[in-house]
Task: inverse folding
């Protein structure tokens, strides 16, 4: 069974410090929901408020429609997977998994049976009698998931559980986590600072900065339609140009930047465009949206000088300077088998479609 | 790796001066301060109690008579066993075990509080308030307990004022003062090993157990105590050994009718002027406390190496 999780006007304060402010989010039952943000943005604090390890200073946490105030972590229909997993080192694998059942007074035979079923779910069938330290990192990861699932939670909370794994395993575990979530069908709330994890696994993502929710939407929307300059700079890579809006029309804005005038989508928030003429604005263009102009007409063009080109297998990274400014532009080109058309050091003209660029009000950016 | 190589590496690692100091100091400590005196005592315990003139003479032969005396009593004894001494012996072990359990029950919550609950300043305050009273010397502390538990002491005064008792309770005769005094004397030896063990437990383990629905007592039973077992063993061993071997506290706080085994040993050495018999009794105490501790470690499945963690 899965349950909705609602955060209603939630504030969390530690003395003077506000870890989360005015958080309003509804997470639908059965959804894979991620909180994405840099470390220290308050995402773990919010997770602890859902799991019951801390109470919001203000506002309500509701699970399945029920207000959770005053209900401790041992009484909530949630289970938490810790960043360091926190498996019990002095218990065997199956005892770890069956701990939640032991707590409820389930008999030993029944516990063992249930543990074996869960071991099968995580593809560790014959490993039940091992000690935790005998397992590999990825196996431990799966045991932590099984241990949490044994409690039959309606909501599973995951606090950056993949951060200790190496890259290959991390990518594999993303697929696996998503598959497990779809099999058990309960709500997953996932905390991460890794946009790749958030984008690949989540139905919806909340991007957080300094205790504030900047945007809540599905991964595609977060990537293609950022609502704030922070989201645009934090999620994925982006080239940034700043200037003043000279004209707005038909959902587009023209921004006068030091690299020339640029036309880009006038970013929406709650359905209405955010920029009007005279505003200070940022124009964001993704590296993959840039093209060599090669004499074709483009909505926007920039003159640049190729500084460096890096080959990364399935694509090229091209780094360029803009003459007369200190801006570095990054462009990605899919390696389609063609030779590079421009040598390092040459002067080029870049073009991009107004549709693929977004203009946003000037605001805080993600740290490099 | 052969021995010559290990020795060479030891000196290379520590340097000549430190290396030599370590070798000499450790040898002196183990051989001169521990092994030799105990061997001397052991040898003594198998000797006859002779006047100085006869030592080394034809009568100076090894004998089991002192151990026999401990079990059987004197030749005039009509009972099958040396009831008085054996009774004191077993009562001492039992009482020491009781003091140990009492200390464990008292110290575990304090150690847990210091390690996982108290915030910064509070933990330090608790540590200080535990240590500072031990600046007062042992004898003075024992007499203070005697006064406190005496018939006109604060505790009786308080109980009478509350109306719980009409007459002062004789805490000295009932050995309450003795157990309290012993328990208090070794409290630090229990708290610090416990604290060390509990403190190194990852807080997330406690939270994970709680999150999985565990009530507080099961968290302790299944997660904290198993983890802290080496520390518990180390604390219990020290408190038990030292309680069983205490002398000053039983002298001052013990009831008139109850002897501590160390007092009997002391009497053989001092008033009885029978050093070999005193040695035999001391050897019996040492051997039996070691056996008792090893037995307990076996039961609770703790290895010797773990205690030294």
Result:
């Amino acid at each position: 069974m899965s349950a909705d999780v609602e955060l209603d006007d939630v504030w969390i304060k530690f003395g003077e410090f506000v870890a989360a402010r005015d958080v309003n989010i509804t997470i639908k039952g059965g959804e894979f929901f991620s909180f994405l943000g840099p470390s220290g943005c308050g995402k773990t604090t919010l997770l602890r408020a859902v799991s019951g390890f801390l109470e919001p200073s203000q506002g309500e946490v509701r699970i399945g429609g029920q207000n959770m105030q005053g209900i401790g972590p041992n009484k909530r229909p949630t289970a938490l997977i810790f960043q360091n997993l926190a498996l019990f080192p002095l218990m065997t694998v199956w005892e770890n998994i069956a701990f939640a059942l032991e707590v409820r007074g389930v008999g030993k035979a029944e516990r063992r049976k249930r543990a074996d079923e869960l071991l099968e779910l995580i593809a560790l069938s014959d490993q039940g009698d091992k000690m935790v330290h005998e397992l590999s990192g990825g196996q431990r990861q799966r045991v932590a998931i099984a241990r949490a699932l044994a409690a039959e939670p309606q909501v599973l909370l995951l606090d950056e559980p993949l951060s200790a794994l190496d890259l290959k395993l991390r990518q594999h575990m993303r697929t696996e986590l998503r598959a497990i979530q779809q099999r058990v069908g309960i709500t997953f709330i996932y905390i991460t600072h890794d946009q790749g994890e958030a984008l690949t696994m989540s139905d919806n993502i909340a991007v957080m900065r300094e205790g504030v929710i900047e945007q809540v939407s599905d991964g595609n929307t977060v990537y293609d339609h950022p609502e704030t300059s922070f989201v645009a700079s934090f999620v994925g890579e982006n080239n940034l140009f700043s200037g003043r809006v000279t004209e707005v029309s038909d959902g587009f804005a023209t921004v006068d930047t030091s690299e020339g005038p640029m036309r880009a989508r006038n970013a929406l928030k709650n359905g209405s465009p955010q920029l009007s003429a005279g505003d200070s604005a940022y124009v964001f263009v993704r590296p993959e949206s840039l093209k060599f102009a090669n004499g074709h007409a483009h909505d926007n063009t920039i003159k640049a000088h190729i500084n460096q080109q890096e080959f990364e297998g399935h694509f090229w990274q091209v780094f360029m300077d803009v003459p007369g400014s200190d801006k570095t532009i990054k462009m990605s080109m899919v390696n389609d088998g063609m030779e590079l058309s421009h040598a390092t050091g040459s002067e080029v003209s870049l073009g991009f479609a107004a549709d693929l660029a977004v203009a946003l009000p000037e605001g805080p950016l993600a740290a490099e | 790796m052969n021995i010559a190589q290990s020795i060479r590496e030891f000196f290379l690692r520590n340097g000549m001066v430190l290396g030599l100091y370590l070798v000499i100091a450790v040898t002196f400590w183990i051989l001169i301060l521990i092994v030799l005196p105990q061997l001397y005592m052991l040898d003594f315990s198998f000797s006859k109690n002779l006047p100085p003139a006869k030592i080394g003479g034809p009568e100076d032969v090894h004998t089991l008579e002192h151990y026999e005396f401990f079990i059987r009593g004197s030749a005039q004894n009509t009972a099958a066993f040396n009831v008085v001494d054996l009774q004191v012996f077993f009562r001492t072990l039992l009482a020491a075990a009781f003091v140990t359990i009492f200390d464990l029950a008292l110290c575990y919550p304090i150690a847990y509080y210091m390690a996982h609950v108290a915030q910064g300043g509070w933990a330090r305050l608790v540590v200080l308030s535990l240590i500072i009273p031990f600046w007062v010397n042992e004898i003075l502390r024992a007499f203070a307990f005697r006064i406190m538990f005496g018939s006109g002491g604060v505790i009786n005064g308080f109980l009478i004022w509350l109306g719980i008792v009409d007459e002062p309770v004789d805490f000295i005769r009932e050995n309450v003062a003795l157990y309290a005094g012993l328990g208090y004397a070794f409290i630090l030896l229990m708290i610090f090993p416990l604290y060390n063990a509990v403190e190194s437990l990852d807080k997330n383990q406690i939270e994970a157990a709680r999150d999985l629905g565990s009530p507080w007592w099961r968290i302790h039973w299944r997660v904290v105590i198993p983890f802290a077992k080496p520390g518990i063993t180390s604390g219990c061993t020290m408190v038990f050994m030292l309680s069983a071997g205490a002398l000053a506290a039983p002298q001052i706080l013990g009831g008139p009718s109850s002897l501590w085994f160390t007092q009997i040993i002391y009497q053989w050495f001092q008033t009885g002027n029978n050093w070999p018999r005193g040695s035999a009794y001391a050897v019996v105490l040492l051997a039996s406390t070691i056996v008792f501790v090893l037995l307990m470690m076996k039961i609770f499945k703790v290895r010797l190496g773990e205690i030294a963690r």
Q: What stands out?
A: The mean pLDDT of chain A is 91.
